[in-house]
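Supplementary Note 3. Input sequence used for the single-chain structure prediction.
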Amino acid sequence: MMRNLVKGAVSGVLATAAMSAVMIAGDRAGLMGEQPPKRIARAALPGARHRPKPGEGVLGAVAHFAFGAACGALFAVVVDGREPRLPLGLVYGLGIWAVSYQGWVPGLKILPPIHRDRPDRQTVMAVGHTVYGTVLVLTLNQLCRDERVPSAI
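The predicted structure, written as discrete structure tokens, is reproduced below.
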């Protein structure tokens, strides 16, 4: 189980990096407004909920990668060493998006739910989460294969 957790966390970090690249591209294209991880961090920091705060960008990035690692670890434990197929990763990534942006994020009044948020931001977020799920599965499968291949050294 510990190996699955570690492989999943590593896969989740790499998947979050790929997803973050999509989010940055969306931001540079003017589609995002404020980045959701930054908004979530702002809400968690003391002071007025919707006012910019020092350190929110760094905290948002750290929290985003930690959440991605945790979601990756959970996924790896659930698949239990089996190589998941790509559709499962896509469903998982979109499931994280739906549970987060239709559930707990608007529940905490950080961002509006998907159907009331900026359509362009939610399009980028949906694409980003499919990238997350894709990279998660591909990386996890590769780590599982690498573990089974004996070293030549």
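The mean pLDDT is 92. The helical segments are 2-28, 36-44, 56-79, 86-107, 119-148.
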